Amino acid sequence: MPITTSSLKHRVLSATARLAPPARLLTGASALALAALLIFAPLTVHRVALVTGLGIVVAGVVTLLRAPDRPTSTALGRWAGGLLVALGAVMVLWPNAGAPWLAFLVGAALLVHGAVSAVEALRSGADLRVAGLLAAVATLLVGAVTFSWPVLTLSVFRFAVGGWLAFLGLQILLSVVLRRVPGTPAKASSGPIRRWTRTIAAALALLLAAAAAAGSAFILGGSPLPEPDAFYAAPERLPSQPGQLVRTEPLTTGVPEGAEAWKILFTTTHPDGSPAISSGTIVVPQKRGANPLPLLSVSHGTTGVAAKCAPSLSATPFADGAGTALEEIVTKHGWAAVTADYIGLGTAGTHPYLIGDAEARNVLDASRAAQQFGEASGTGIDVTTRTVVWGHSQGGQGALWTGQIARDYAPELEVEGIAAFAPAADLYGLANADKNSAPGKTVSAYIAATWNTIYPELELRRHLTPGSAGGVRKIQNLCFNGSDVLSAILYGTQVPNQIFPDRLLEGDFGEKLKEQEPKGPFPSPVLVAQGLADPLVKPNMQHDWVEGRCNAGEQIDYRTYPGLDHNSLVAADSPLTPQIVQWTLDRWAGDAPTPNCQDLPQ
Predict the structure, then answer these.
(1) Can you tell me the mean pLDDT for 337-366?
(2) Of 311, 217, 206, residue with least CA distance to 264
(3) Distance between alpha carbon 288 and the CA centroid of its chain, in Å?
């Protein structure tokens, strides 16, 4: 009797059915063993990729074995099973492909398995449908989350993948044990305890997956921030001179107790010297006499590069850097403090991020605008042309540059002192030292996003490392203040490589970075403060920069603080807080400075 196609198919299905239970037992046990390795074993990244790939192969084999049991979805099962085996095999054979590619394979495998499981659940009996759909949706969510964390997938989400494999393995073993007749299609047990056990387990898996998805969306989504309103728009007729006050508006959010504050809009210049406009703030004590208030000019630290990242738009506009010291010097010592948001933060244009000369002009022009504030606002508040300049991090670089160009750019202002806290003084050195850290990648992304426009000849976007352009696009829209800080840094962790390749740092781009180093001469005493536990601005690099300035003849008061990092250096309880207040009052009183170039602390 000739063998027909239908009879051959019947024999293949029968043989598969006879072999299925032992094969399922083997695959279920394999899934559990691989899950245990992922969850409990100390594996390298390559071995995590290898074990995960084997787990995906097992999931593919399971899908292939289940296909004959479900005639309505046999073609889909075979296609999906084969694809899972292929994806897992790629991971097994190529475990050093790099985290983003491996994460893509994990995510794709989970999405395929989840989609197939959802279809099978819809075609199952009523008592299996709910549990099957819950488990399928959980798998789909874990797969989607994987794409959001490409670098973390193999180091952190290994536990989620391990949990998925454990759930899969137990599901396979239970399906074999609960079969009524070995070798025949499985029938759902009608026992209510078993039905509820499956459903509860699937619901818990879905709950955990949903929590992971919601947490990822919350963390990576950043916090909603107010967009600039009409106050920040340039008027039709803009004064041609820099440092002209355009408009003011009372500010009530985040103002220290015992103080009053306003937003200000003023003219300044772009990095190329062309006219521009910037926003900022001025804060003064509520109790004040008739004399002009001593002026503190603040160069703020990194808050981001998008317009919404302006400090004047923040719920805490005066918290940047040494915020507690600023509050004290305003409310207890009767000073006025003016801060420039910088071009592109609040106002239109590209923010000249870490371009020292441009930041300094913004700071000096804000101080010029403060001279006109009393008359323009109708408050009668006058401030002195004498000023002390403060700045932290990016603002530390800006403060040093402000002192450096003040005599040429704004000779009517008298800079009595320059205080820089963890300044980004050696930008080229920092770009090299921090290129592989998460904060360093975030800062590099801000540079890539802004310098690409300011220095188009560098063509930075075209020369970024492979896989980093997407991270740059995401990070540039996140602010580096409030809850956005976490989002920006976590996105930095998901950039697989350094943002700028070494060849770029060694070329024209590297030369531009070196040009941002403030070298003086400085017109007044300089204080530089550095935390010795700072992971971003390295203490040894700061020491070398200070030593270099000392050797060039500058007199610098260099203070170091053991155990303090980049942010704790300027925190309320930092020993620097009372010191910087006293140092500022001493500069105003004309007391002799205290440089220590001859005996620099380490």
Answers:
(1) 96
(2) 311
(3) 41
How many other β-carbons are positioned within 10 Å of the β-carbon of residue 43? 17
Q: Is the pLDDT of residue 435 over 70?
A: yes
Q: Report the candidate in 496, 433, 494 with the shortest Cα–Cα distance to residue 464.
A: 496
Q: How many CA atoms lie within 13 A of 367 on its CB side?
A: 31
Phi, psi torsion values for 314, nearest 5 degrees: -75, 155
Q: Which residues of 45-82 are buried (b: 16+ CB within 10 A; e: fewer)?
A: eeebbbbbbbbbbbbbbbbbbbbbbbeebeebbebbbe
Question: In the structure encoding, which two tokens stand for residue 585, read together?
Answer: 């009052």
Look up residue 129 and give its DSSP letter: H
Arithmetic mean of pLDDT over the chain? 81
pTM reported for the whole predicted model: 0.71
Residue 339 DSSP symbol: E
Q: Which two tokens stand for residue 328?
A: 């004290």
Tokens of 527: 């204080």
Name the pLDDT band for 537 (thresholds 50, 70, 90): very high
The Cα–Cα gap between 323 and 572 comes to 8
For the residues of 383-434, what is the DSSP string, one character each? Answer: EEEEEEEEEETHHHHHHHHHHHHHHHH-TTSEEEEEEEES----HHHHHHHT
